[in-house]
Amino acid sequence: MVNQEILPSKEAAFELLKKLKVPYQVRRHSLKVAEKALEIAYKINKTDVDLDLIEIGAILHDIGRAQTHGFKHAIIGGRILRERGYPSKLARICETHILGGLDKEDARFLNLPEKDYLPNSLEEKVICLADKLTAGTKEVTIEQRFQKWFSKYGKTKILMKSKRRIEKIQEELSSLM
Ligand SMILES: [Fe+2]
After folding, report:
1. Residue closest to 96 by CA, chosen among 12, 169, 155, 172
2. Ligand 1 centroid to 100 CA: how many Å?
3. How many angstroms separate the alpha carbon of residue 129 from the centre of ligand 1?
4. How far apart are CA 14 and CA 56, in angstroms?
5. Four-residue CA torsion sign, 71, 25, 131, 159
């Protein structure tokens, strides 16, 4: 059993992705998100932010993609980490990184267990944003990221809501820099 309070090292986290057969492209994406998330976090100077949690959380945020690439990968990722005894703050990062986070209504719409999956902690917010700013291994803007989704799915309510939410998160984080 892994100690519930202690974060795994960067190496151990990356090894876990490999062990669970998270695809190579996803692993590359995750490293890129970690880089982006740390870049954002370094600029935050008006409050404390847990850089280790951000780095390890970003590496593990897509671990659920070992099982599915659907929206459920967020919930599955959380479950994988909880079952293995990792800190619940890491599991929460997986569960809240989808789009701009999901509220109960969004969760119901996506056939996920009906509850909020909204990024609350600073670390959850930083990783959710860094993920939106990273398409594969490429840096993009929120605008570009959502335009791609809009052209694929249309300007759906859930995407519009998510875009506003992530823009608010970006503003909030900027105000802490
Ligand atoms: Fe993801």
Report:
1. 169
2. 11
3. 12
4. 9
5. negative
The tokens describing 114, both together, are 């009906």
Measure 138 CA to ligand 1 centroid, in angstroms.
15
User: What pTM does this model have?
Assistant: 0.95
Phi-psi region of 21 (alpha: psi -120 to 50; beta: other; left: phi over 0): left
Give the pLDDT confidence score for residue 5 in this predicted structure. Answer: 77
Q: What residues form DSSP beta bridges with 134? A: 139
Domains annotated for the chain, with CATH where assigned, are 10-174 (1.10.3210)
Q: What is the pLDDT of residue 165?
A: 97
149: tokens are 């989704």
Convert the pLDDT of each residue in 33-65 to its tens digit: 999 999 999 999 999 999 999 999 999 999 999
CB-based neighbours (< 5 A) of ligand 1, an ion:
62
Q: How far away, in angstroms, is 61 Cα from ligand 1 center?
A: 6
Distance separating alpha carbons of residues 89 and 158, to the nearest angstrom: 25
From ligand 1's centre to the CA of 127, what distance in Å? 10
Angle, in degrees to the nearest 10, between helices 88-95 and 73-83: 170
